[in-house]
Amino acid sequence: MRAKYLLSLAVLAAIGLALGGCAWLFAPQLEAVLSADPTKGEAPLSVEFDLSGSSGPITSYSLSFGDDSDPATGTDVDTTVVHTYDDPGTYQAELVVQDARGNMSTASVSITVVPEDEEEPEEPTASLSLTKLENGEVEFHVQGWAAEDKNLVAWTLYFDHPEDEPSTGEEDLEAESIDETVLHTYDEAGEYTAKLVVEDEDGLEATATTTFTVTLAETEITSFEVTDADAGEGTEEEPYELTVGQAYEFEFTAAPGAGREIAEWRLAFGDGTYLGETGLSEDSPFTITRTHTYTQTDSYVAVATVWDDADNSASEEIHIEAD
Questions:
Q1: 16 CB contacts (<8 Å, ≥6 apart)?
Q2: CA distance 241 to 320
Q3: Long-range contacts of 204-211 (CB under 8 A, 24+ apart)
Q4: Fewer C-beta neighbours within 10 Å, C or N terminus of the chain?
């Protein structure tokens, strides 16, 4: 029994030593993180490098700046390193962190240094304005100008940004400026943003946007009356006064909605009789005039109704006293 006990202790000790030797397997993952501020500027450019995002069992680090200068080294990554780049150019700064077993992780950041007082390329400019017309039609005024000694090569007008479809424009230009008028009809009411993009020969772009609301005319009856009534206004309070047995002229005018055609009309006189017509394609306002005679003394409501090709309808009524 004592021999087994001693053997167990020996096995446990061996396992402990083995696990102790493999403790690195359970250590946090080594990760290098490097950021810089600024990453672009005029020479001489002073850059502050931040290493503090790095993690894991780090025992040392080395930060090289990509300009043949000596790297910065140390053991504490919770610090910042400042380095000055004297000459214009693009540099790749690289951080290497290492643990006690020699494992390494790297991170890098690009630094761009431009000559002092270097002028940025002058960009083109764009202008977009509009005039809202009737029935969803909008007239856009498109303008663009290239920088001095440059040419515009393309322009695009997006009618419904950010969807950016549909659109119109022109490519393969060689012009110092553009000045165009573009007509577009919107089929649905709502708020829209149009966007103009102009591009010059260097690939530089300029944009202009304008936001507006489109309201579309709906199919409607604009007037309805008895043109030769004896008296009255046709309202419930002041109905038209007509004489039984006498013919009177009923007249209404209808207008289709934006992009629509009136396909059918009906004129009901309120006494069980009506007139109408189907199979129409009226794309502009039109007037219907018909005569009718009431044969009995009573109160009537005459109704004029139209339907368009999208099955939208509009109605108007007039009140009548026949005596």
A1: none
A2: 6
A3: 204/121, 204/123, 204/124, 204/147, 205/123, 205/124, 206/123, 206/124, 206/125, 206/126, 206/144, 207/126, 208/126, 208/127, 208/128, 209/128, 209/161, 210/128, 210/129, 210/130
A4: N
Query: Domain range spanning residue 80?
Result: 29-114
pLDDT in tens, 137-172: 899 999 999 998 899 999 999 998 887 778 999 999
Closest by Cα among 224, 200, 235, 198 to 321 = 235
Q: Are residues 230 and 315 part of one domain?
A: yes
Instruction: State how far the Cα of 96 lies from the Cα of 118, in Å rounded to an integer.
Output: 33
CA–CA distance, 282 with 232 (Å, rounded to integer)? 31
Question: Per the domain annotation, does 95 fall within a domain?
Answer: yes
- Cα-only R_g, the chain: 41
